[in-house]
Specification:
6-stranded antiparallel beta sheet, 6-stranded mixed beta sheet, 18 helices, alpha/beta, about 550 residues, single chain, elongated, Rossmann fold
Length: about 550
């Protein structure tokens, strides 16, 4: 339950602190005093959006903080799921800086707004007038049935099956689309693959072919010149090689006579060895060069094939052609296996669809079990609230499976005898809507372990004896749940274990919203004002005192 609420620098609130009752707390105040502002601040603890416009003083940050006693609500696993330290006394805080940046904390640990919504939503349920309007929507009515039947595990199992089905369906559709495209392009891809495979390309081949072609085109000239070089260097007499050998022999006997002669002899020996290597290399090169017109044609044809493929695919080199070949082979292989892959994906989709249908059937059965008892309970509760002839039934239609199941539910309602039940939005008045929503909250409170329930003017459109009955039901609800009721009715205000007054204070330079707890005569005064206006009569005060005594 909420043990303390602190609001600082929010809208018209400079600073506000409230310690609500563990049972029923009522909050009253004139229209425009700031009761809805308090709800806005509480909404920050539930992860609602905010901006800098909410700052009472734009030079200071806004802080909304709630302290909750949660020891008996089994929320430790939820905290562990979000990697948060659990504490029986949990503090949720929201801060909005002057620059508009929002920060959320749970037990002083920074959290995302999603985490704050998840945990805050398990600690408080804030009913607003907007939610009353939602009572007429199919989505809300379906959620009402699920909450009443307590079929959370069945809903979660269905949602898991729905997720698996949508994933399998998307995978099948993507593969099916790819299959059609691949099959349409297969012949062309296969032709390209065959062409590249037949070419048997190798990465350094282009450079080698270009070099070989140059040699082949000038083979006669190369061979002739190498032959002449060999003749000059080593084959004719006298040759450079022979002359060097003779020079080395001539220096041999005198090399020891001086360091200069020894150095000269060494250098001549080095030149002779190098020259011998040159001659050997030239002989090898001369032998390798063949004057072969047919080979030149073969090399040219091979190069032409390489150039043609490069130009055709607009690629710079053989390396890029080989990468293209790999990609095309992969596509061709994928196309060849697409039918098998599509069949496997189809089988998975059929299996997921079958599981989804099975889970949807179980969910429908669980919901149908709640239609009659939920309708009966609501009608029973509506009778003492001034709708004695209420008729309510839940109409069910099966639909194709969707995110929330395969069911469409419609709450049909009639408040008057002899009038056939019709959809809520077509027949219920504002007051009837409020009373029906209160009964919904009353029934759900029996089914849940929600610590704190906040009701914002759920008594709209009621008065007199009906308001009295509404107050008694709130008192009964508060035995099991902490209940905070914002009301404008004295019959409800007097039921509170604590009574707070929200009012505007204009004594300072800037108007602010304040709150104070009412005790004894202060409470009599406030209830009397609710009965008889700003200046209540003696009779109004007596009525107020009598209501409080009751």
């Amino acid at each position: 339950m909420l043990s303390q609420l602190t609001i600082k620098n929010y809208a018209l609130i400079h600073q506000l602190e409230m310690v609500p009752s563990a049972q029923l707390t009522v909050i009253t105040g004139e229209t425009g005093a700031g009761k809805s502002i308090m709800l806005g601040a509480i909404g920050l603890l539930l992860g609602n959006r905010a901006d800098t416009k909410v700052l009472w003083d734009e030079s200071e940050k806004c802080i909304t903080e709630g302290t909750f006693e949660i020891s008996s609500y089994g929320l430790r696993p939820l905290f562990e799921h979000h990697n948060l330290d659990y504490s029986d006394q949990t503090v949720i805080r929201r801060e909005i800086s002057t620059g508009g940046k929002s920060r959320a904390f749970i037990n002083d640990t920074p959290v995302t707004l999603d985490v704050m919504r998840d945990i805050g939503g398990r600690l408080m349920d804030v009913h607003s007038q907007h939610e009353t309007l939602e009572l007429g929507t199919h989505r809300f009515q379906l959620a009402l049935v699920d909450s009443y039947t307590g079929n959370l595990s069945i809903v979660e199992a269905y949602q898991k099956a729905w997720k698996e089905f949508t994933v399998a369906e998307e995978a099948y559709n993507v593969l099916s689309g790819e299959a059609g495209k691949l099959k349409a392009e297969y012949d062309f891809i296969k032709f390209q693959v065959d062409e590249l495979q037949q070419a048997s390309l190798k990465e350094p081949e282009q450079e080698e072919l270009e070099s070989s072609l140059k040699i082949s085109e000038h083979a006669e000239d190369i061979k002739s010149r190498l032959h002449q070089i060999l003749a000059l260097l080593g084959q004719e007499v006298p040759s450079a090689q022979g002359s060097l050998s003779a020079a080395v022999n001539l220096l041999q006997p005198i090399r020891d006579f001086s360091p200069a002669l020894e150095q000269l002899s060494k250098r001549l020996e080095i030149v002779r060895i190098e020259l011998k290597d040159i001659v050997d290399e030239a002989e090898s090169a001369e032998e390798r060069v063949e004057v072969d017109p047919a080979r030149r044609v073969t090399i040219q044809e091979r190069l032409d094939l390489v150039y043609t493929l490069l130009q055709k695919h607009r690629l710079p080199d053989i390396k890029a052609l080989l990468e293209l070949q790999r990609q095309l082979e992969e596509q061709a292989s994928k196309t060849a296996n697409v039918d098998a892959d599509l069949l496997a994906a189809g089988n998975l989709l059929d299996k997921a669809r079958s599981e989804l249908k099975n889970r949807a059937g179980k969910l429908t059965v669980s919901r149908e079990k709640g239609f009659a008892p939920l309708s009966s309970e609501l009608v029973k509760l509506l009778r003492p609230l001034g709708i004695p002839e209420a008729v309510l039934k839940i109409e069910h239609t099966e639909t194709p499976p969707g995110p929330r199941g395969a069911d469409l539910v419609e709450v049909l309602f009639s408040a008057n005898k002899g009038i056939a039940p019709r959809p809520l939005e077509a027949v219920a008045s504002g007051g009837e809507f409020s009373r029906l929503m209160f009964c919904v909250k009353y029934v759900l409170a029996e089914k849940s372990a929600l610590p704190t329930l906040v009701l914002d003017e759920i008594d709209t459109g009621v008065s007199g004896e009906i308001a009295m009955q509404l107050g008694l039901m709130m008192k009964e609800m508060a035995k099991r749940h902490q209940l905070i009721a914002i009301s404008h009715l004295p019959q409800i205000a007097v039921r509170g274990d604590k009574h707070f007054l929200v009012f505007k204070d204009s004594t300072n330079l800037k108007t602010s919203t304040e709150i104070k707890i009412l005790r004894d005569e202060e409470r009599v005064d406030e209830v009397a004002k609710m009965i008889g206006g700003a200046k209540p009569s003696t009779l109004a005060r007596e009525n107020a005192r009598e209501l409080l005594q009751q």
